[in-house]
Design brief:
Layout: E1 4-10, H1 15-25, E2 34-41, H2 47-57, E3 62-68, H3 73-83, E4 88-91, E5 97-98, H4 102-107, E6 114-117, E7 119-123, E8 130-132, H5 136-142, E9 147-148, E10 164-167, H6 168-171, H7 184-192, E11 198-201, E12 207-211, H8 224-244, H9 251-270
Parallel strand pairs: 1-2, 1-4, 2-3, 6-11, 7-12
Antiparallel strand pairs: 4-10, 5-12, 6-10, 7-8, 9-11
Helix pairs in contact: 7-8, 8-9
Length: 271
């Protein structure tokens, strides 16, 4: 029986991909209860061979490997969700790393209609030199309480689909919006937020290490007019969801989601 499906979208997998798979392979949680689903997307088919070699080196690790010509993490994650067998879903980016007890600690805390969130550290080249990720501040503030039912207080955790364990029943038929290349994580988390009653804080040893890369998609420079258009369309998508489920959404959380794309726009523009 598969308990956890680890979903990893990958564009041009490189040595970073090997580090990511290694961190999954060395988990303390039983390998027979984990499946890894990798979707290589938007690049030459030859990259499949590289990904397959890395996965085959992880002896005993159950995996599925897919290829899609269509680029984008949203499409890749949607493909993986369609084939996932796990009771719980864990999203990991292909250049990131998770701590050795990451899955075991989080699944031990999971409850019905809840998600478990981990600590997050950012690094450039070496794990020995990490720094606080923007989500880490929320984690540090709330870890002494163990959980929160107020989505506004834990809103930063809803900006990413990574660094958490999500019950498959919470996701259901919900999927990522492929129209967006930025902000798609936050939109997806807002989409499923009405099925989440509690956010549980994992212990400090459950760490998601986010690799900081200058060439990442979210850091690519765009002109200001393009940024305005993207922010407007994303905000409109949040607003549409907010209106449709107004009666069961934390008002402050909903307003924050609608306005967040503009806040992010000016932070990127003027930082």
């Amino acid at each position: 029986m598969i308990d956890i499906s680890v979903i990893i979208p990958s564009y041009k997998p490189s040595s970073y991909f090997g580090d990511c798979i290694s961190s999954i392979y060395t988990q303390t949680f039983a390998k027979e209860k984990i499946e890894v689903i990798v979707v290589v997307n938007g690049c030459d088919y030859s990259y499949i061979s590289y990904a397959l070699d890395i996965l085959n080196q992880a002896k005993g690790l159950q995996f599925k490997l897919f290829y899609s010509m269509e680029p984008g993490v949203s499409n890749a994650r949607n493909i993986a969700l369609d084939y996932a067998r796990g009771k719980y879903i864990c999203f990991v980016d292909d250049d990131d790393i998770v701590s050795q007890t990451y899955l075991e600690n989080m699944i031990s805390l999971i409850e019905n209609k809840s998600i478990v969130v981990s600590n997050v550290r950012a690094f450039v080249d070496r794990l020995e030199n990490t720094k606080d990720d923007y989500i880490a501040y929320t984690y540090a503030r709330l870890k002494k309480y163990g959980f929160s039912c107020n989505k506004f207080l834990v809103r930063r955790f809803f900006s990413s689909s990574c660094c958490k364990l999500i019950p498959r029943s919470v996701i259901g038929d919900s999927r990522f919006n492929v129209k967006f290349k930025n902000g798609e994580d936050a939109l997806f988390m807002f989409l499923i937020s009405d099925k989440i009653e509690k956010v549980i804080i994992a212990d400090e040893h459950s760490i998601y290490y986010r690799r900081v890369r200058s060439d990442s998609l979210s850091r690519q420079k765009r002109n200001f007019k393009e940024d305005i258009k993207i922010s407007f369309n994303l905000s409109l998508a949040f607003l549409s969801l907010f209106i449709r489920r107004f009666h069961k959404t934390n008002i402050l959380f909903g307003i924050n989601r609608v306005l967040a794309p503009y806040r992010r726009l000016f932070i990127i523009r003027y930082k």
